[in-house]
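Figure S4 source data
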Amino acid sequence: MTITPSLFLRRALLADAVASAGTGVLMAFGAGLLTSLLGLPEMLLREAGIFLLPYAAFVGWMGTRARLPEGLVWLVIVGNALWTVASIALFVWTQPTALGYAFVLGQAVAVGVFAELQYMGLKRPIEATA
């Protein structure tokens, strides 16, 4: 089913895109520096950052569309929820520094908030236009 996204949903998607692009650039190009600061594997940081760059472009594109397949919005919401869970699970396999814990928890909370905002935006009725 195709939907007309509310302004709220479009803004939530665009905010996700901006945050993902910034984090992606930081992680993709700064993985070498970040690994010593965060205590996280360099390859994990770099690959996650590289993943975030096309993701950010895709979600940014979604945020500019007048019509969207509802399934794509659900894909982003579920993907963000899974990223949040996977971020917390990361603590089982890694031993980050205190800054690393703060970084992972901070981005997990932010991504979880984006998932919630996008869900709210999906369920929000379209604003009436005059």
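Figure S5 source data
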Amino acid sequence: MATTSRRKLGRRQARDLDIEIGFLEALLRRDPDYVEALQVLGDDYSDGGRFDDGLRVDLKLVALRPEDPNVRFNYACSLALTGQLDCACFELERSFDLGYRDIQWLQQDPDLAALRKHPGFRKIRARIRALKSDPITGN
């Protein structure tokens, strides 16, 4: 599924984003495993509405850092943005298993808007409630 609709950016913001993307892409041609550059590029692709490109970057990051809960969370976001909601639920669960705990952001992240309406999100809601009531991790 090709998903490319630019989010609401002003003209200047869109131009600046395109410049940053071009710079990061060039940087990654020289060092394809530069994790920090990949993370910024993935965010930039999503900000620019290039969700399939963001998914490709997040998949590479998962290969480079499979046990990083934030990488798994971002991968879940990319899956949600590309309409792969069952896979997004699975990856979000995986991010919890690895230690992701920014529950407040998870509940408001616009990338997960469609996922929060998906039936598979019920299990995630139950985990959120359990995490909130846990005196060690709870909010």
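The mean pLDDT is 91. Residues 11 and 17 are 10 Å apart (CA to CA).
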